[in-house]
User: What shape does this take?
Amino acid sequence: MPYNEPSPLEVKVLTRRFGLADSASIETYLATGGYEALRKALGMTPEQIIEEVKLSNLRGRGGAGFPAGMKWSFVPRNSPKPKYVVVNADEGEPGTCKDRLLMEHDPHQLIEGILIAGLAVGAHTGYIYVRGEFRYVIEILDRAIDQARQRGYLGKNILASGFDFELYTHTGAGSYECGEESALLESLEGKRGVPRIRPPFPAVAGAFQCPTVLNNVETFSAVPAIIRDGGTAFAALGIPRNGGTRLFCLSGHLNKPGVYELPMGFNLLRMIHEVGGGIPGGKKLKAVIPGGSSCPVLKAEECDIAMDFDSLARAKSMLGSGGVVVMDEDTCMVQAAMRIMKFYAHESCGWCTPCREGTIWLKKLLGRFHAGEGSRGDIDLIGDVAKNMLGRTFCPLGDAAAMPTIAFVEKFRDEFEAHLEGRPCPYENTHRGAPA
Amino acid sequence: MTFSPELEARFEKLLQSYPAGRQRSALIPMLLFAQDEIGAVTPELVEEVSRRLNLKSLEVDEVVTYYSMLRKKPAGKYHIQICTNISCLLTGGQNLFEHACRKLGIGNKEVTPDGLFSLEEAECLGACSWAPAIEVNYDYHHKITPEAFDRLIDSLRKLD
Assistant: This one.
């Protein structure tokens, strides 16, 4: 069963089977319209499928928000090489916990989306790259793949159409960096997860140096609804250029944290108060990380905002992977910045110097600061180190570490100053909840 | 080295999952599944997997040192990962980790003398909305208070 009660404000498209008995089984899937989109897609041309996905305004749910239909159209159809579909299920962006649910509660929806992507680009093999900690999810996916094969939805000559497709799960073994698409492809080839230089992009040289469509679990999971109901209908659920719904992961200081499917463009304050049940203890809102730890923090007064890729970009943040982390008035922003940087320092793959060195130095600086040993000059030094990482690395991890740090320093400079001259952290209650 | 028939079957399936000539792709899954069975990535395992995939043992070693779940020394029978990342930090994850250290009498990445428990401060486990979250071997536990943690440890001790 789902881990939180649904909200009446939800628009359930991708999560509509959550909570049904045996929601992961093929019987439940077939009884609720499952694999109808695949039947429809088998009667369409690849161009028609891609056109529907373009019409849907579906943008990548992994974090970057790149239009999915356009990404698919970059795969060279006349290439003599085999083509692949690769699913990024290496969910690990702090604040994000939606892909696990989509795979756990509705694995066939994901499989159907992968098959439709395969039809669209002429691929006959797919891999679901699942983070190693999600072992039980791999078992659910493997069972679903077996069921689909037994019923003729995978394997040779699917539904007597002449279309062949094989699908495999592939476990990672502990690495946030492998959620970055090119590092994921290296890892899939049995190597260290270090990023590749681009171009060429995965659409041209991806898995095994062959043309590859690579998207997030949630992106593929949206595809059956798009084909079944039409791209225009999906787009209409959201707002212009941001089609459909999205799974928002509400966490932090909320009365009803949980994963909720809401239309793109849903207002953040309503999300906090009406969906997430407001802040415990009647406390005031201080800040929100709107899309996972890589996204620059918003101050409370910036939170009356539509949650879509473009509105967040205008606010100099990002919609990211949908991880909405809510922080109340007693939260220490220095500690939050420090913990996030500790994460990036741990996860930097070490391939490029600005990220490898920058994350470690920022971790030391922020740690020293939180311990009351920072100097006034360190406040600017933190910003300088972070700015020197921006845009200077092979992959976005360097930026992902630098951007939130810059925002914490710029927006909450007063809190950094409050830690100066050996003063104890004024917000020692940040990590409450569990009494020591 | 010999493995259980189940693990051999898994290896067989893995080796058929990748394009011809790309069997190296099976490396990381093979190491992790084998570690689950024998407890650690031992030098013997590295040799065995190198031989089966026709790789240099150095090529296997450089992979082993990259991935945080692969370990050269055995963990406890119950390996406990406690997330202290941002969403868990805000809801008591850091306190929970410190509580767990006291309860078990060990620190980060250490094993209890009886080999029953090991502890690791984890990065985001993907359970942020039900924080603080922990994982015991491959089992998720959500919204864990220190009291719930103590009950869990006591029940695992009894199981043994």
User: Anything to note?
Assistant: Chain A touches chain B through 65 residues (CB under 8 Å). The two ends of chain A are 31 Å apart (CA to CA). Residues 432-436 of chain A have pLDDT under 50 and may be disordered.
